[in-house]
């Protein structure tokens, strides 16, 4: 293996790994100084000249000319007779300068140097990737799906660096195949067995925040501040925003004309419902806005236990709770209060739509009642079990269970 091969090998790493020139020279010089120390015992009297543009390398060794028989260290000194074999004009006390060729180290030393070189470059590259991504935590990155496994997906960025998107950091509706483009936020960067492990996320609140910054110039410019974001990835999100400029409506700016700004975000998040609300330090009003789209009749706060008792009309209860309880859960996370929902009681009980019981009664059963014109609780209770069995395709046992649920509503 020649010096040219070794340098070309290094240049190849430099080009692909994008390491700067000072680092290139420093690493290359250190590798050769190590070789010099092994061969001559010292590198103090050696000069290494590296041209990073074309890979040229020169090694020059300087020794002091001594009288014959007075040389004590062959690594630092040379006897006059030996020096005259190269240059007859040299005298005692002069510097004897000679060029050291890489081939003179021998094949084994060159192979070892190349291995050391490769090892140091890879180590530097790993450190560079770690430092780069450590500073980018919270930023959005775009990459290409390279491989999909059961528990995680491997994504490559523009420079070919490996990013890990765990299943737990994916939106439930996400489906990726090789070659797909994916956007996510840098969530965590760690060193695992000397290798940088870069975790990206599509479920972190920071991802939604960065999407808003990209879509809403007022947020990017600092005119609107995102106070807090809470999410149930793929289902619902609530974003509290505030504007320091009275002329700017923060909610309107975030949503955009006819929803133009928020539509792109919703599509990216696989149709996740996003509620944008005005932040306020008035807790009662904040909770009321957080439970949107439900309309609250009254609210009682207990600041010691951080609980809020919210009273609503019967037809607003399901809106406040939301599908799967997501709305009330997110409202609690957003405001910091445990929210308890109560149906507002009146002297004369109002009728309740059957849809209000969707959490307790299966949808297909409710549909059976609707087919015969029964769409409220009282309209069902008004008929006997026998009559309901006769008019629907439901079994007597099922009807009895439904009647128990509906009657308990008015007890």
From TrEMBL:
One GO cellular component term noted in the UniProt record for this chain: cytosol
Compartments where located: Cytoplasm
All residue ranges annotated as the S1 motif domain in the record: 138-203
Main location: cytoplasm
Domain of life per record: Bacteria
Oligomeric and partner information: Monomer. Binds directly to the core enzyme of the DNA-dependent RNA polymerase and to nascent RNA.
Function: Participates in both transcription termination and antitermination.
Family: Belongs to the NusA family.
Name this polypeptide is given: Transcription termination/antitermination protein NusA
Top-level taxonomy: Bacteria, Pseudomonadati, Bacteroidota, Sphingobacteriia, Sphingobacteriales
């Amino acid at each position: 293996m020649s010096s040219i091969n070794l340098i070309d090998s290094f240049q190849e790493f430099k080009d692909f790994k994008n390491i700067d020139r000072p680092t290139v020279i420093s690493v290359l010089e250190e590798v050769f100084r190590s070789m010099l120390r092994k061969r001559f015992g010292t590198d103090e009297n050696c000069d290494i000249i590296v041209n990073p543009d074309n890979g040229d390398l020169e090694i020059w060794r300087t020794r002091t000319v001594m009288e014959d028989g007075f040389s004590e260290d062959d690594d630092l000194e040379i006897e006059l007779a030996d020096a005259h074999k190269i240059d007859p004009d040299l005298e005692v006390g002069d510097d004897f300068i000679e060029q050291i060729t890489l081939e003179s180290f021998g094949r084994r030393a060159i192979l070892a140097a190349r291995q050391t070189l490769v090892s140091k470059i890879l180590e530097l590259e790993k450190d560079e990737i770690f430092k780069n991504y450590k500073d980018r935590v919270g930023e959005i990155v775009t990459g290409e799906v390279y491989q999909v496994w059961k528990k995680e997906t491997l994504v490559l960025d523009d420079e070919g660096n490996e990013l890990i998107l765990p299943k737990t950091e994916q939106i439930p509706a996400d489906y990726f195949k090789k070659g797909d483009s994916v956007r996510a936020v840098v969530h965590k960067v760690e060193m695992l067995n000397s290798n940088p492990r870069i975790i990206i996320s599509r479920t972190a609140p920071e991802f939604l925040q960065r999407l808003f910054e990209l879509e809403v110039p007022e947020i990017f410019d600092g005119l609107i501040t995102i106070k807090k974001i809470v999410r149930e990835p793929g289902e619902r999100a609530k974003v509290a925003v505030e504007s320091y400029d009275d002329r700017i409506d923060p909610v309107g700016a975030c949503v955009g004309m006819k929803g133009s700004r928020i539509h792109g975000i919703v599509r990216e998040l696989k149709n996740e419902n996003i509620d944008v609300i005005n932040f306020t330090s008035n807790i009662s009003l904040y909770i009321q806005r957080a439970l949107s789209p439900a309309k609250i009749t009254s609210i009682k706060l207990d600041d010691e236990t951080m609980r809020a008792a919210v009273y609503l009309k019967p037809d607003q209860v399901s809106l406040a709770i939301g599908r799967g309880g997501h709305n009330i859960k997110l409202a609690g996370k957003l405001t910091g209060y445990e929210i308890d929902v109560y149906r507002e009681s009146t002297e004369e009980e109002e009728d309740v739509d059957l849809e209000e019981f969707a959490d307790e009664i299966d949808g297909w059963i409710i549909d059976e009642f609707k087919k015969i014109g029964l769409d409220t609780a009282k309209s069902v209770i008004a008929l006997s079990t026998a009559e309901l069995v006769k008019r629907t395709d439901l079994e007597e046992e099922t009807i009895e269970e439904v009647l128990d649920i509906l009657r308990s509503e008015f007890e």
